[in-house]
Amino acid sequence: MSTPPAAGPALAAAPAALAPLPVPPSPARATAAAARAARTKLLLEGPIAPTLARLAAPNVVAMGVMAATSIAEGVFAGLLGVSALAGLALVFPLVMLTQMLSAGAFGGAISSALARALGAGDSDRAERLVWHAGIVAAAAAALSALLVAVWGAPLFALLGGHGPALQAALAYAGIFFPGCIAVWLCHTCLSLLRGTGNMAMPSQILLLVSLVSIPLSGALALGWGPFPALGMTGLAAGIVIAHVLGAVLALGYLATGRAGLDPLRGLAPLQAALFRDILKVGLIASLSAVQTVFTIVVMVGLVGRFGEAALAGYGLGARLEFLMVPVVFGIGAAMTAMVGANTGAGQHRRAQAIAWTGSFAAAGLVGGIGLFFAAFPDLWLGLFVAPGDAATLAAGRAYFGIAAPFYGFFALGLGLYFAGQGAGRVLGPVLAGLARAAVAVGGGLALTAWTDLGLAGVFLAIAAGMVTFGLAAGLWVHLARRR
Fold first, then answer.
1. Ramachandran quadrant class, 482 (left: phi over 0; alpha: psi -120 to 50; beta: rest)
2. Of 441, 278, 279, 359, whose CA–CA distance to 48 is shortest?
3. Does position 307 have pLDDT exceeding 80, yes or no?
């Protein structure tokens, strides 16, 4: 009995013939993918300075408007009363830490991982990273909410909160931290968009978040028009609702493929390597955010020894210093994407040239602002302090005269930190930030204890910390180039 010779091969080929063919992308998705590829090519080949300027400009504008949100929140809290203002001061470091972690530390890590994947030409890896980034954001938000629920009240009490001020802080935290999943998802999606080289859409969404947040927070806190007067609860609710809107818009932009990625194609078993790609940068970078908040808290305590006027004067100076962070972030976010793409493509010399170009641009811009207000401090102080408040004005002028001329070093270190995120090598800038904290805190304690400099000694220590940060981060990049 003979066997038909063609049966075996034909049956063997049948499964392959019946396998589903890949579905071609829609014309709109194909166009978006082509635009994303063109942006990546620009990151890899475009002239460094003009490309950085083009990418950074919308970021700087958006960050400036977000800084206005912080100022408006303080104004609204002041209208609620002294206890509300004190409560906001208690919870503000944790709120600021959430923003710095979601947009800066982990946001930069996510943007860097995506940019490196695209720079290496691995769009499949980039699409899988979208889901891994979302899981990291959700987990971080849940952990934040849990920690504040358990330790929030003891921490606020440790910082000096009691009575109505403590209740105000708890009322704000009780809304913001359960709702911070919206903040994390919003900034995570925007970081993914930046990783593709798209700076315009994240900036537009952040502008919308700010423009919604300012009037909504005021209305819900103070009871404008038909809105109920919810006090500190309403103040936090306005922030959360605005970020919900931002998260929905950013998620929709990603899900519809307009970012040039197809997240549905990235649906696959989770991979530990992709989580490591995000966490190895994000966890180390988070140390920088933690030490920044720690330094602020300690320096406030040192200045507070010299009285309420000194604390008010320093607070106004430190507020301008803090507002320089969004300015640097606007340039730094562009650097993270450019350095990430070039690192992924193996163009390490170009990546370092981008790091120095962007960081010196940030140092020049912020340094110029610092020198201006060192020469004319009353142009800033006069916005908040009455001319007759001589003690507060004296403290503010002392801060600007001593610390503001060194803002450029602070911006240089922060710029190199963002560049380090892009390269996936952030340990050096983080250690530079820790050195800054050690010099500022240790120097402040030493100069106030062992000299007669008084408040000026604290400001000198702050200035020395800025110089340390910039020089140490610059040394790290220089040594990295030699390696």
1. alpha
2. 359
3. no
So what's the pLDDT on residue 146?
Answer: 96
DSSP 183-212: HHHHHHHHHHHHHTT--HHHHHHHHHHHHH
Residue 98, token pair as written in the block: 């959430």
Tokens of 125: 């890896």
Least confident of 104-113, 125-134, 195-204, 315-324: 315-324
- Is the Cα torsion angle 152, 157, 160, 161 positive or negative in sign? positive
> How far apart are the C-alpha atoms of 161 and 168, rounded to whole Å?
10
**Side chain identity, residue 405:** P
Q: What is the mean pLDDT of residues 113-121?
A: 91
Q: Is the pLDDT of residue 4 over 50?
A: no
d(CA 97, CA 453) in angstroms, rounded, equals 32
326: left (phi over 0), alpha (psi -120 to 50) or beta: alpha
Give the residue from 161, 218, 209 showing the smallest Cα distance to 185: 209
Q: Directed axis angle between helix 272-304 and helix 123-158, to 10°?
A: 30
Higher local confidence (pLDDT), 328 or 480: 328
Q: Which pLDDT score is estimated for 9?
A: 38
- At 419, list the tokens: 């560049």
Average pLDDT over the chain, rounded to an integer: 86
Annotate 41-67 with DSSP letters as a single string.
Answer: HHHHHS-HHHHHHHHHHHHHHHHHHHH
Phi-psi region of 197 (alpha: psi -120 to 50; beta: other; left: phi over 0): left
Residues ≥6 apart with Cβ < 8 Å to 423: 112, 339, 340, 343, 351, 355
Handedness of CA 425, 278, 103, 40 (dihedral sign): positive
User: Among 44-58, 287-301, 410-424, whose mean pLDDT is lowest?
Assistant: 287-301
For residue 328 the two structure tokens come to: 């640097």
Cβ neighbour number for residue 28 with a 10 Å cutoff: 11
Which of 333, 288, 281 minimizes the C-alpha distance to 136? Answer: 281
Q: Can you tell me the mean pLDDT for 43-72?
A: 85
pTM for this model (two decimals): 0.80
Q: Are 411 and 324 in contact (CB under 8 A)?
A: yes
Pick the closest to residue 288 from 97, 445, 89 (CA basis): 97
Buried b (16+ CB within 10 A) or exposed e, 89-110: bbbbbbbbbbbbbbbbbbbbbb
Q: Report DSSP state, residue 118.
A: H
Q: Are 266 and 127 in contact (CB under 8 A)?
A: yes
Q: Over 80: is that where the pLDDT of 229 sits? A: yes
